Predict the 3D structure of the following.
Amino acid sequence: MSTFQQPDPKDRPARLTVGVVGAGRVGPALAASLQLAGHRPVAVSGVSETSRRRAAQMLPDAPVVTPAEVLERADLVLLTVPDDALPGLVEGLAETGAVRPGQLLAHTSGRYGAKVLDPALRAGALPLALHPAMTFTGTPVDVQRLAGCSFGVTAPDELRLAAEALVIEMGGEPEWIAEDMRPLYHAALALGANHLVTLVAQSMELLREAGVTAPDRMLGPLLGAALDNALRSGDAALTGPVARGDAGTVAAHVAELRRHAPGAVAGYLAMARATADRALAHGLLKPELAQDLLGVLAHGDGTEGDTR
């Protein structure tokens, strides 16, 4: 549940017309949540048939138009395009005169802060970086999932209250991120969320290979408990053969992965090394057990390095 109170009416932005440039998974959900707060989506742009269908489903009263027309119709424009496309989009909109003075321009990229909007700022726009720290499905369920979602917020000081108020109106919790810390902030989220999906998918594949008929049901309680423990206790929650220094078990893991899933070996070794380093630093892995374990991880097999 959000710990933030709804903003006082005098601090809330006036009811805004809202436009979306890029009807991917994120933009329509944010616009729909703003609609629930009393703002009015008036236009959306989308290129693919999938994005057009998504816009029609989630923003049925907002016509699909060109990006320039979105900016012409909206007081608040959400730029929800891929990170690599954002700088070129902003420059193009500014160069063609599509940006209006006083217009709120908010992008949802995790990588960039407000500086990427400088071309629009020079044209008189008000720049905001509002990145929701959540994965999106592109369906209406995303609107409900925004409740309590943290947003990485970066904006000029004079727009900070307006940016935070918009996030709160979407049901989120604003977290201020300094401009120069945006890439690190985004890397942290990618490490935790995006890589987690890869790890879980690999784990399910290996369990199926081992004969488990319902790997999702097996992993659900285990991963849920591990995540909860990690969020509560950090490195103190480390368990398993690496943290215990069971070099023989780790060597057996690597050998089996080489036989059944060679593509998973590099990831297993990299994560095991990182886990060993953290376990050592926090006194969980005994130094006398670490040598053999690190030897296995260095050689990547169960023969060399395991000298016990």
Notes: The CA atoms of residues 13 and 245 lie 56 Å apart.
